Structures are given as C-alpha cells and as structure tokens.
Amino acid sequence: MRKLNASVWGLLLLLLHIPMMAQQNIYVNQVGYASTAPKRVLVDYPAERFELINVNEGRVVFEGEFQLRKQLDECSGMTLYEGDFSEVQTSGRYLIRIQSSLNSGITSYTFSIGDAAYSDVLQMADKALFLQRCGLKIEEQHAGPFARQVCHLAPSYYHPNCQLTGEKDMTGGWHDAGDYGKYVAPGSMTIAILYASYELNPSKWQSDARNIPESGNGIPDLFDEVRYELEWLFKMQRHDGAVHEKLHTKNYVQFIMPSAGEVPQFIYEVSSTATADFAAIMAKSARMYKAIDAELSDRCLRAATLSYKYLDQHPDIFPEGGFKNPPDTKAGGYSDDYDKEERIWAAAEMYLTTGKKKYLHDFNELNRIFKSEFMEVNWNNPATFGFYSLLLADKEELDGLQADLREGLANYCDRHKQVAAADGFGIAMRADDYTWGSNGTVMYKAMNLVMGDYLLGDRQSRELAARHLDYILGLNPNKKCYVTGVGTNRILHLHHAPTVSDFNAEPIPGIMTGGPNKYRNDEALQAVFDANTPPARIYLDNEESYSSNENTIYTNAAFQFVATYFNKP
Ligand code: 9MR
Ligand code: ZN
After folding, report:
1. Residue nearest (by alpha carbon) to ligand 1 atom 7
2. Model confidence over 238-270: pLDDT tens digits?
3. What is the pLDDT of residues 318-345, one digit of tens each?
4. By C-alpha distance, which of 324, 321, 326 is closest to 335?
5. Which neighbouring-strand residues pair with 93?
6. Which helix (H) or strand (E) segment is 129 a member of?
7. What pLDDT does residue 5 have?
8. Does residue 259 contact residue 148 with C-beta atoms inside 8 Å?
C-alpha cells in the first residue's frame, strides 16, 4: 500500500476529531427573554442559519444567520457561533431550529418572549427565601409539599472563643444556604440586596399577598420577610455593641431535615467585619422602616449607633488578623481578614440615616483607599452597597462625591463591556472569576451593570446585564438552567439539606445554584473533572458537589435583584 503522507494523516485525524470536539449544542435562555431585551442563541459548531419557531402557532416567524462569536473561548473551551433574534418582541413560546449543511434540523429547548418572562420564577424565589426561615413551623398552606416541622429552638452555646460561657436564645433568621448555619455578613448582605432592589423598583415589591404568614397585615411582604432576619440579627449583638460572627454546628451535619438531629449550635466570637456589617444594615433599616414601623426603625438606629461606637473605639481589625474558625470547628467557613470594606459601608449608611458630618468624614477617610471605584459586592466585600446608597440619595451636599461615584460606576461598566466582548458567552466573566459561588459573581456584576443603566442611563450596560441573566437561565456552557423549578434542563440534585432529605422529587423551586468552580473544592468535582477542564464547565448537578451545586440566600437575592429589574409585573 502506498504510504499516506503526513498531511493526509493530519487531515484524517482532524476529521476524526471534529465530531468529538463539536458537541452540536444549541444554547438559549430556557426561561425566557424580556420583550425589549437583546436575544441571542449560541451554537458550538459551525452552523449557518436558524429559524425561530412560534411553537403555539407552529410556524417560522424569523430567520437569521450565525456569525462566528469566539474561537476557542478560554472560559468554555468552545468555538462559538452567535445568532441574534432581538427584533422579535411578540409574546409567545418559541424554539430555535438549525438550518445548516452540518446537522440541520436540530431544535433548541423552548423558551418564552414576553414582558413578564420572570414573574413565575420570581414568585418561586420569594417563597424560597421564606422556606429558609429557621425556628418556624412551615405550614402546608404556605408551602404545599415543602411544609416542615419547627427547627432549632434549643438555645445555642457560646463557643469558648467568645470568652463567655453558657447559652443564649438565638432562634429565628434564615438558614444561610444548603446547611443550617446563620451568619451576620451573608444575612446583612442579603437584606442589602433586597433593599437595593426595592429602591430601584418599589412598585414591584408592594405585594402583601405572597401567601406568607404575615400576608394581609398591611405591610409589603418583603418587609415582613426582612424583619424576620432583623429580629435574629439583634440577638447577635453583644451588650457593648460588638457583634458575633456567626452561629452553627462545629461540623457539617448530614442531609437531615432542619428539625431532625438536635446537633448543638455554637455562637462564635465577635468580629469587626460582623460588627460593621451589622451597623450598616441596621442604619439602613432605620431608614427603610421609618414609615412602616417607627418603633422598629428606632431600635435599628439605636443598635447601629452602639455598634458603630464600638468600632470607633476599636479601629483595628478584631479578632486580630480577622475571624478564623477555631481548630475544633470544620463547618461554616467565611473567614475574612480585611474590614475596611465593611467599615466604609457602615459609615455611608450611618451618614445617610443621621445626616451627621462625622460619618461622612469617616467615609471620605476610608474612601482614600477605595477611591470611589466600583467592585462587585460579596459577603467579604460590601463596600459597593455604600456607594449604591450614596448614589441613590437626594442630598445636595453629596454632589461632588456623587460625581466621583458616577465616574467610578461608568469606568466599571466600560471595563466590563470589554471583558464581555472577549468572552464566548458574552458575559463579563474572566477565567479567574469561576470560583466557589461563580453564579453569584455573575449576578453581582449584573447588579453593577443594572446600576449603570438606572443611574447613568447606559443602554449598553442594560443589555449586558440582561445577557448575564440569560447565562444563569441556560445560555451557558453546561446548557443548564441554574435556577431550580424552571427550564427544561433543570437542576434536580441541589446540595440543600431540606431538599435532599424531604420526599419531594424536585428541589424547592426558585433557587439559584452556586455554579462552576475552577478550584474543584469537593471530591465530586475532582472525580469528574481534571484541572485542565475549562473553568465554566466545572459544574455538577450532584448533591455531593457542595462547591458547585449549593445555594445561598445572598446569591439568590442577587438573582432576584437582576430578574426583578428586567421583569414587568
Ligand atoms: O461561599 C463560601 C465560599 O466563598 C468559601 O470559599 C467557602 C469556604 O469558606 O464557604 C462558602 O460558604 C459556605 C459556608 O461555608 C457554609 N454555608 C454554605 C456556604 C456556601 O457554600
Ligand atoms: Zn433552623
């Protein structure tokens, strides 16, 4: 036989590889696109054309072409082609069908187009937060199949690192995540996100009929829900104003219902990060509840003032080096060794609530570090919440500062437009952003971009923020709708103890999962993915994958913030 030369072998090998590399997938937002939002479909093989089919009417309503979007995208490892059907704004249910020389005729998952595309999932998310409540019997009339017994009524013990002994009533508040811990930083942050959403969309948060126990009491259910957490937060404050870091069991508990097991929970020592987060959220709550409940508003301000005074008297981070788990404790994480972001947030909110120059002075001093530059919020970095509040305030003496903050926001948005332009899926995520809780990061970026639209009227930021929502709802390399209860390729095995241990087939709906994690911080991820896997692919819908498939209250709040902004009720 004649010898094949090297280039023919090369071609053969390439041909053999094409079917392995190209997955021939269609990526869409499986829930839906808002009527006026940009609408895109991606494929990971060189398809040429597509049709948009209205599935109720059974007819083609639009035809479009694919353009190469990105060759060998770093985050997904894919080569991606993009089609645009933004001009279709008519409400309905649709799917995409490929017209191409390669694999023609394959169809996408169905999705909606419409103004109220997110109404259902938002209702689910509201209820999901209610279902995180601790210390309350969850009745069937409010929760259907997710009703459950009361949990965690026993008093908690002071961990020896508190230098206190004995026990204390710590009932109430929200479970933080898929486990049953309760933490000051994550709790404060959740409330801060919900408040910001309210401030941008007050009319969308007025409902007093969301079928929670407080519904019908004349107060929007949002404020009843938040109050449930505030009442717990008050308990975390020591008499001198310092605030305990958190409350949980020493080791992670197994997948048990919250009412089962009676594993003792411990109160951990006070920290400056928790104390400042507490001061900030209590100061803001004093403003938010002023017209709703004057007595609660006063309590919040007294508590905030006491904590702020303590911080003033203890200007260095405490405990020294920042809070860390003591050696006997494995659960709970969340260590933070820098407290300036928390302190600047507290100064901003104290100033806005009291109008006292001292706090503005404190803010300006700390802002010499941050220089009005926008960052993504996170549980260990709430500084940007202070910026949001200052920008939303109507105070003449803030004119100069607001101009600086607007510039900081505009710079943030411009930088992130560039990142998104280079990304295969068109969002402002870099490979290094795919760490524990990356779906939260996607939403925190979108929050800043939403602010760019709301405060600066920047349409490009608005459109980019909407693309982040598309990513969460299915337009991502795993073709997964990352919110439970919605989408066709949906999450079934969330790492969420009540969901795993109850007898329902599907998890509680309306919960966004953690997302891809390039550090593979659990054995389930390590067993399936190697270190060379593109970061945005490292995700498993598996109960054991706590570092890619667990929810938290604050990442869910960020999802609520973004979806609320793009929904018309
Ligand atoms: O989200 C947290 C992540 O950023 C940290 O790296 C990790 C380890 O400290 O902890 C995560 O938070 C989890 C917490 O420890 C326990 N409740 C669930 C939290 C979300 O996964
Ligand atoms: Zn509980």
Report:
1. 333
2. 999 999 999 999 998 889 999 997 789 999 999
3. 999 999 999 999 988 899 999 999 999 9
4. 324
5. 112
6. helix 119-130
7. 57
8. yes
pLDDT value at 17 more than 50: no
Is the pLDDT at 20 greater than 50? The verdict is no
User: Which has the closest alpha carbon to 559: 445, 452, 419?
Assistant: 445
Q: Is residue 140 part of a domain?
A: no
Q: Best substitution site from 265, 273, 511, 552 to test ligand 1's pocket, by max atoms within 8 Å of Cβ? A: 552
- Classified as helix, coil or strand, 33 is strand
CB 308 within 8 A of CB 346: yes
Distances (CA, A) of 105 to 32, 100, 219: 22, 8, 52
| Residue 13 resides in a domain | no
User: Domain for residue 50, yes or no?
Assistant: no
d(CA 344, CA 348): 6
List the one residue out of 159, 329, 183, 326 whose CA is nearest residue 251. Answer: 329
Query: To test the ligand 1 pocket, which listed residue (251, 255, 334, 381) has its Cβ within 8 A of the most ligand atoms?
Result: 334
Residue 476 lies inside a defined structural domain of this protein: no
Report the domain count for the chain: 1
State pLDDT tens for residues 440-499.
Answer: 999 999 999 999 999 999 999 999 999 999 999 999 999 999 999 999 999 999 999 999
Nearest CA-CA partner of 26 in 5, 58, 4, 50: 50
Q: Does any ligand 1 atom lie closer than 6 A to the CB of residue 482?
A: no
Q: Is 187 in the pocket of ligand 1 (CB under 6 A)?
A: no
Number of H helices and E strands in the chain, helices first, is: 16, 14
Q: Which two tokens stand for residue 70?
A: 């990105």
What CATH number is attached to the domain comprising 183?
A: 1.50.10.10
Per-residue pLDDT reduced to its tens digit, 396-430: 999 999 999 999 999 999 999 999 999 999 999 99
Residue 370: both structure tokens together: 């941050």
Conformational region of residue 261, where left means phi above 0, alpha means psi within -120 to 50, and beta covers everything else: left
Provide the 10 A C-beta neighbour count for residue 526: 14
Residue matched to tokens 């706090």: 359
Helix H or strand E segment including 50:
strand 49-54
Q: Domain limits at 379?
A: 151-398
Question: Three-state secondary structure along 216-278?
Answer: CCCCCHHHHHHHHHHHHHHHCECCCCCEECEEECCCCCCCCCCCCCCCCCEECCECHHHHHHH
